[in-house]
Specification:
184 residues; alpha+beta; five-stranded antiparallel β-sheet
Length: 184
Amino acid sequence: MFSQSLLTARRAGLTAALLLALGLGCAPARAQVAPTPAPAKPSMPKDVAYYLDGQPADQNVLAKVTPADIQDINVVKGAQQQQLFGTTHAGGTVLVTTKAKASTTEVLAFTKRLHEVVPLVPASPAQTAAVAAITAYMAKTYPAAKLEFISPYKEQADRYLATFSNAGQRLQLLFNGQGQPVKL
């Protein structure tokens, strides 16, 4: 599923089943595409409100949350933000749900209210298959890497940008819809 601009690797729940269908071992040899350095992690915007597990949070608290601990991230702006919180911040409201608290009563109630205002748009079968193929490629090619996220690539249709860390470096690779790396 897409949650605003982020498509998290965690949401590729069908990875194992799709890997069998993709037949990755039968693909012809392809030229290796080297990952490029990913931009530095942007600093936390100051003109937004932050919520962690359904509660207002300081940006310093959120800066300590690791990507591996995150269940969902949503960004709410404009009328939807006004409807949910009664206030508007210029940059919007960032809502972060951690895996540890995602199933608590308070967070489930907050998430239900959020999705009444901002309905989730499920990923298409093609998007789900692309994420599964990208995840499989990353696991096979960079087994020690930690995948941060996979997001649609705004500049080209049917392209996905995977950002990951490997050997202390933050890197990115551009993939086509079949999960094969292409030049950035």
